[in-house]
Task: structure prediction
Amino acid sequence: LGPARGLAAAAGGNGRGLERVDSFIGVSTRNKPGRRTAEDAVNNILYNTPVSKERPARHILSCLVDNEPGVLSKVSGLLSARGFNIDSLTVSATDVKELSRMTIVLVGPDTQMEQATRQLEDLCDVWAVVDYRGQSVLERELAIVKVSCIPPPEDDAEATHGGLFNRPKTPQSYEEMMTSHFHRQAILDIAKMFGANVNDVGSESIILEIVSWTKRVDAFIRILQPYGILEAARSGVIAMRRSTVAGGDDDDNDEAKTLVDMADLPPG
Result:
């Protein structure tokens, strides 16, 4: 007989023959159709329940660390050595001279994020680690984008995707100047819809500045891509827990988890 098959004698010695039993799932072949035993029900729960997999989630960790050289390399080295996916890392000074604030954005399952938090707390240079997952957080990121004011040629694929090379020179004729004007005006309209500021204007390019949450910055850069992005720089995420309203209850955090996330809404 195979490894998953066996013979079991009927209990009680009442003369019934041997009963064939599937030793893996524990289901008797002599049971009446539509009727299950307790053993069948237990084995169904043990072997037939699908295993759920944790989906990667975005976690924002706020760390207070010593304001000393080498702390950043210790934290980044610890996370990279253990295979954590660092989406963003920002370090800045605080109002306390001896402390710096480090904002780390990690993407992964909740169990791995808990492990990362515990490992960061074990570092001697780290004073505190707070995971903002599931909390009401004010999140902002700064991005500056330089966009070409000259429309790319239709037959130049690289220029169409914002390449630095093979870009046309400053327009000379009136028709070229008007074409460049409408191209610049379209960029300014997009910047106005996203609430971006114009920091610098030149004859060949324009620099825009936007301060918003991460998904909105991503959408802003994607929309500007066909117009010819020459350069782009992003500061990384900084975050802080929102203030509570007087008279409210701490249990409001559970309700905040079910509210619509503004980062999931379209721009505008």
Observations:
- Helices lie at 38-48, 71-81, 110-121, 157-160, 174-194, 214-228, 252-258.
- The beta strands are 5-8, 19-22, 57-66, 85-93, 99-108, 126-131, 137-148, 197-201, 205-212, 229-241.
- Residues 1-28, 157-165, 251-260 have pLDDT under 50 and may be disordered.
- DSSP finds seven helices and ten strands in the chain.
